[in-house]
C-alpha cells in the first residue's frame, strides 16, 4: 500500500494545520446530511484558524465499486477521494439512515480505503433520518465501521431528523448547537494529541482479489 499510508501531524511537521474532512454519504443531490456535515465543518473552520477544512459530498464523485485491489491502484475520482481521506487528520462523517444503517455509497468508500487510512484519528459521526427508530444505528453500525479502522468515534454523535430541516436547510437551533459541539470535540482531540492515538495493533487483514486467490478463475 505504498503511497497511501496516513502520516501524522507530527510527521508532517510540528505545527501543521489540522486537516479536517467532512464526508456526506448521501446519494441525494439536495441532501440534509450534507447540510448537517457542512454546519459542523464550517463551525470548526470559522472558530479555529489552524483548521483547513473541506467537505466531500460523495454524490459529486465518480467512485468505482471496491473490487479488492490494492487501494494504491485506484485512479481518477476514486484515487482523489482516497488520498483526501488518508491525508486528513480528523473527520466528520455523515450518512442518511437507509434501511436502518448507513448508505451503500458510504460503505463503498470505507471499502476502498487502505486499512490504516483512519488509524488513531478522531471521527465525529452524524446521521440524518426520517424517524427516531434508527438512532442506535450510530452505536451498532457506524461505530463498529469506524472501529475497524482503529479510529476514535467521538462520544456525542448527532442524529437529525427531517423535522429539523426546512427546504433542505438545517433550522433546528438545538441540532445546530450539537453539531458545533461535535466539531469542537473533533478539533480539540487533534490539538491535544501530537499525532494519532493508537492502542494495541490489530491483526493484519490481507487484501486479495478473487483472481489472486484463484477463486475468480473458471
Ligand atoms: C432508501 C431509503 C431508505 C431509508 N431508510 C430509513 C430508515 O431505515 N429509517 C429512517 O428513519 N429513515 C429512513 N430514510 C429516510 C432518510 O434517512 C432521511 O430522509 C434522510 O434525512 C435523507 O438524507 P439526505 O437528504 O441527506 O439524503 C430512508 C430514505 C431512503 C431514500
Automatic annotation (TrEMBL):
Organism per entry: Rubrobacter xylanophilus (strain DSM 9941 / JCM 11954 / NBRC 16129 / PRD-1)
The NADPH-dependent FMN reductase-like domain, residue ranges: 19-162
Gene Ontology MF terms in the entry: oxidoreductase activity
Keywords annotated in UniProt: Flavoprotein, FMN, Oxidoreductase
Protein name per the record: NADPH-dependent FMN reductase
Keyword Hydrolase: no
Keyword Flavoprotein included in the entry's annotation: yes
Amino acid at each position: 500500500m505504498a503511497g497511501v499510508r496516513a502520516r501524522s501531524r507530527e510527521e508532517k511537521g510540528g505545527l501543521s494545520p489540522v486537516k479536517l474532512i467532512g464526508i456526506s454519504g448521501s446519494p441525494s443531490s439536495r441532501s440534509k446530511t450534507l447540510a448537517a456535515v457542512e454546519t459542523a465543518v464550517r463551525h470548526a473552520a470559522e472558530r479555529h484558524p489552524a483548521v483547513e477544512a473541506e467537505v466531500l459530498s460523495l454524490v459529486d464523485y465518480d467512485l468505482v465499486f471496491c473490487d479488492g485491489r490494492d487501494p494504491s491502484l485506484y485512479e481518477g475520482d476514486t484515487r482523489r477521494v482516497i488520498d483526501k481521506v488518508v491525508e486528513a487528520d480528523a473527520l466528520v462523517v455523515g450518512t442518511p439512515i437507509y434501511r436502518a444503517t448507513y448508505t451503500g455509497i458510504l460503505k463503498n468508500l470505507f471499502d476502498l480505503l487502505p486499512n490504516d487510512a483512519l488509524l488513531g484519528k478522531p471521527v465525529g459521526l452524524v446521521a440524518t433520518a426520517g424517524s427516531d427508530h434508527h438512532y442506535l444505528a450510530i452505536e451498532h453500525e457506524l461505530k463498529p465501521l469506524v472501529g475497524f479502522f482503529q479510529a476514535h468515534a467521538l462520544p456525542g454523535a448527532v442524529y437529525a431528523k427531517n423535522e429539523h430541516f426546512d427546504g433542505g436547510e438545517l433550522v433546528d437551533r438545538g441540532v445546530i448547537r450539537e453539531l458545533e459541539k461535535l466539531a469542537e470535540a473533533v478539533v480539540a482531540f487533534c490539538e491535544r494529541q501530537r499525532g494519532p492515538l493508537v492502542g494495541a495493533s490489530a491483526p493484519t487483514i490481507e487484501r486479495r482479489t478473487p483472481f489472486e486467490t484463484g477463486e475468480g478463475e473458471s
